[in-house]
Amino acid sequence: MSLSLYTLIENCFPEDRTRLALEAPGRGHGPRDWSFMRLSTYAARYASFLGQLGLKPGDRVALQVEKSPESLVLYLACLRGGFVFLPMNTAYRVEEVDYLVGDAEPALIVCDPASEAAIGDIATRRGVPHVLTLDAEARGSFIDAAAAATNAISPATCSADDLAVILYTSGTTGKPKGAMLTHGNLAANGLALRDAWHFTDEDVLLHALPIFHAHGLFVACHCALLSGAKMIWRQKFDRADVIDHLPRATVFMGVPTFYTRLLASEDFNAALVSHMRLFTSGSAPLLTETFDEFQARTGHTILERYGMTETGMNTSNPYDGERRAGTVGFPLPDVELRVVGEEGDPCSKGEVGGLEVRGPNVFAGYWRQPEKSAEEFAEGGWFKTGDIAMIDVDGYVHLVGRAKDLIISGGFNVYPKEIEELVDDMPEVLESAVIGVPHVDFGEAGLAVVVLREGASLDEATLIIRLKEKIANYKIPKRVFFVESLPRNTMGKVQKNFLRENFKTACT
Predict the structure, then answer these.
(1) Is residue 53 part of a domain?
(2) 337: in domain
(3) CA 44 – CA 153 distance, rounded (Å)
(4) How far apart are alpha carbons 79 and 43 in whole angstroms?
(5) Distance CA 508, CA 505 (A)
(6) Which domain holds residue 475?
(7) Which of 60, 201, 436, 482 could cross-link to 106 by cystine, CB 3.0-4.6 Å?
(8) H or E element: which one contains 398?
(9) Is 494 helix (H, G, I), strand (E, B) or coil?
(10) What is the pLDDT of residues 127-182, one digit of tens each?
């Protein structure tokens, strides 16, 4: 690929550029409409402005703002100009942002006006030359400064291997790692999903996902932009708001929590969604009960798929054909999957082992961590996902566990080691273990099991308050239990499987 991902996207816009691309709530809750022509014009203007600030292709642009059309256009501008986009979860606290900024060394941070002072302190300490602001209603110093920019800059010419995005994902060490996604990775995955899910310019996608996450930014937006489809852009998932807008949509993408909440009342029924073409679910396992209830209530079968920050989407249940509950379907075109045993030998159908993936969607490695990157790949370019899986005799992929103890709560990844390190640093705590347990709303929730030092006193509420000062709310354990000791095997490793069994009903 000799052109940027942006050029590919723009080439997929409809011939009539005046068609509506994105409808978003505006001031006073009225619609704020963006045609494809307006998206193109503003992407060019923002890219030109970034160049006028002195940014060069390859420079990082970090973003921690509320969802808005302008934040999406800033992403497109980065693709257009060859800059590297770095979205940050809006729930991240100062310490979390400080680490990411120190690691990625962006040339520009765009943040919410309310956090400008704190982000400015980080930028000064980390040597970031520019900090600008942007809020959900398109107000802020970024908008003001970019308004005068020309849109004369031509789209950057990028190879498939050029870096487009860095998405940070935590790991078992507790420190986030920057997954490097190239123009080629994102283009290949976007086109594969567009075709697999039969997107056309007649579709209307109801978009209620965040866009600091691969699901909302890449899976949802790329499917729409690469097919010339319209998006109904909602600030966040709100049950009543989604039900209000579903009658005008053809596609809805969600995490399992969205679907459990939609099913919570009888006003979500077959008549409401009779015109819908597709419901997809991802970012967390979909319970079979939810799958079955949705099918019985609406007549629609949710299409579940499987992906990772490092790979984009790897598999999908078929658009035409049987969508099986409890499975994530088949590999997407050009994606290879295999299940291997402890020695790396391929498993037979029906055997459980480690899941590995290879294809044009697989990331280029971790930012500035070549040794860690090399560790994550097996011979032949196979990426070790860390998931435990089985491929059945019909070829459907079943995810049966996670080797790295990842907790997926409400669609967000929570890594126990990160939480455990913070808990263990508390003076009253001897050691801790964080596990995932079933949760009726979030699918899975974090739970902390804590051993106190002799004579120390600490309660659940105090521990949680301390954690809330340091990490995002979605990472906070839903419950904390104090025990005399943690179960260990003969090698001294904490047996989290015992803890998960003992506390499996604690959050239900």
Answers:
(1) yes
(2) no
(3) 7
(4) 9
(5) 5
(6) 407-502
(7) 60
(8) strand 397-402
(9) strand
(10) 999 999 999 999 999 999 999 888 677 899 999 999 999 999 865 456 889 999 99
Q: Which residue has the tokens 């995005």?
A: 165
For residues 102-137, one letter each, b for 16 or more C-beta atoms within 10 angstroms of the residue's C-beta and e for the rest, the string is ebbebbbbbbbeebbeebeebbeebebebbbbbbbb
Which pLDDT value is given to residue 342? 84
Mean pLDDT in residue range 446-466: 96
Pick left, alpha or beta for residue 344 (phi over 0 → left; psi -120 to 50 → alpha; otherwise beta): left
State the alpha helices, DSSP H only, in 409-469.
416-424, 460-468
3-state SS of 477-491? CCEEEECCCCCECCC
Amino acid type, 123: A
Q: What gap in Å lies between CA 166 and CA 271, rounded to an integer? A: 42
In this structure, the strands spanning 20-25 and 230-233 are parallel
pTM equals 0.87
Q: CA 326, 329, 332: angle at the middle one, nearest 5?
A: 155
Q: Count up the domains in the chain and report the number.
A: 2
79: domain CATH number? 3.40.50.12780
Per-residue pLDDT of 33-72, as tens digits, reads 999 999 999 999 999 999 999 999 999 999 999 999 999 9
Contact present, 165 and 84 (Cβ < 8 Å): yes
Domain CATH code at residue 454: 3.30.300.30
Read off the pLDDT band of 223 (50, 70, 90): very high
125 neighbors 99 (Cβ within 8 angstroms): no
In a domain, 427, yes or no: yes
pLDDT at 1 over 50: no
Question: What's the token pair of residue 412?
Answer: 């967000």
The verdict on residue 126 lying in a domain is yes
Taking only the tens place, the pLDDT of each residue in 92-118 is 999 999 999 999 999 999 999 999 999
Q: Six-digit token pair at 284?
A: 């967390």
Q: For residue 354, what are its two tokens? A: 């480690």
Distance, first Cα to last Cα, the chain: 49
Report how far residue 230's alpha carbon sits from residue 168's, in angstroms, rounded to the nearest whole number.
Answer: 29
Report whether 303 contacts 276 (CB < 8 A). Answer: no
The region, left, alpha or beta by phi > 0 then psi within -120 to 50, assigned to residue 31 is beta
Task: Give the angle subtended at the CA of 186 by the CAs of 5 and 388, to the nearest 5°.
Answer: 175
CA distances to 82, 344, 355, 367 from 350, in Å: 44, 16, 13, 36
Reference 181, options 47, 66, 313; nearest CA is 313
What is residue 171's predicted lDDT score, i.e. its pLDDT? 54
How many whole angstroms from its chain centre is CA 462? 30
